[in-house]
Design a protein that fits this description.
The chain is mostly helical. Helix content is 75%, strand content 0%.
Length: 530
Amino acid sequence: MDGRKTETVAGSGQPLKDLHAEVNPVKKAPRNKYAFASCMLASMSSILLGYDIGVMSGAIIFIQNDLKITDTQVEILAGILNVYSLVGSTVAGRTSDWIGRRYTIVVAAVILFVGALLMGFATNYSFLMFGRFVAGVGVGYALVIAPVYTAEVSPASSRGFLASFPEVFINCGILLGYVSNYAFSKFPTHLGWRLMLGIGAVPCVFLAVGVLAMPESPRWLVLQGRLGDAKRVLGKTSDSKEEADLRLADIKEAAGIPQDYNGVIVSVSKRSHGEGVWRELMRPTPAVRRVLIAAIGIHFFQQASGIDAVVLYSPRIFEKAGIHKKNDKLLATMAVGFVKTLFILVATFFLDKVGRRPLLLSSVAGMIVSLSGLATGLTIIDHSHRKLIWAIAICLTTILSYVAFFSIGMGPITSVYSSEVLPLKLRAQGAGIVIAVNRVTSGVISMTFLSLTKAITTGGAFFLFAGIAMVAFVFFYTFLPETQGKTLEEMDALFNGFKWKSSMRRRNSKEEIDGNSNEKTNGPIQSGTS
């Protein structure tokens, strides 16, 4: 754009570069540290889910030896947490609508603390299963509330980065679980696995204390009519005062509160406390139906592509690949956790730069190649009567590349995307639905993987996962629009007008469209939408 021809804005006398600074403040503003700290504290609850998944992969080796349980009981023990989490995810949405997002995180922390202690002091298989039940309820709460809170607190300019925190912390928890496996494997069998599980209570204490420093979600405050409190939170979590005012106006519009209502406290309808939400979810508008299909679909395919099979049963997969020493299997499993955590940290810095769709599609494409390579390597080893070093190397490489590709897209984008697209009034309970789908799918994979490998071999199981990932790629390519930079209140219009072919062209013409809009418009442009 030629600055000499458009030096001022017609009718205003305002320099164009100053107008650009007003309408796009997020481009130059530093990352909001208060929002960063709040989202980090909220996402600590996700460490406990990750820890439980990671630690169980190694702990079940020692539990099976100590309690003399069968492979079927191992499958149930490993995967039942996902089924139990349905209880928590089902009620978490309504709980957070009633008592607020912040105190729901406290509820999750208390339940997870009790569950970890019960598992650590378990004396038999039944006691251990009861501890898994309690922990599962807490996991369900954490899975719902952490993404919802981070999405609602985050400014649009860094929402992808901040909303990926729950997934980052899950991966940190998985890595800590693997490290715990290795560290406590030196203890006597009956003591080692109990320490592995019981030490998971420690992060709950820090989480409960940390919540005291967190603000409440501004969107929840508006739904309660507490506009004064919402303004204060938005002022601290936005990149500028203008953005805070814009976010408040968008939330008020979505909540059905007139823009001229500016009191500290305003009256709201009972529906804003969560009543009537299920009726709207069961009889959705076309746009809401499309949103639900997209959110449910991405959560289903995240788990159906086999990630929990790799995370939970890494030692057994490595054994099938030709690594038989217990110490070596645990070290290789630690490498999986390290790579998974490293690449998800990389992904967080690209979510708001590259966009959701490119990262997601690249991630799934890499997963397809990795799963096919892993399946091929395991099949070759299974049909060979001698040790093939090159085939073992292929298996190790493809397992690591699989978790790496998963972590740069499918892992963090699933929670980010679903928390973004769900409408404000349906967000908390809608999140409960998609998390339920996620956990059921994960539970089915976790509780059938060993049986599946016996039926069609381990290589065959991963060929199946590769096929599911191919279906996922087609679904994402044709059904999921780009949400980068959109405010949470713009998603309804985005899904109403989405066409996948135009979505692919949109990024190529984005700068030209934005430039034309800036030339033709004298009014303010919403920050975070460019």
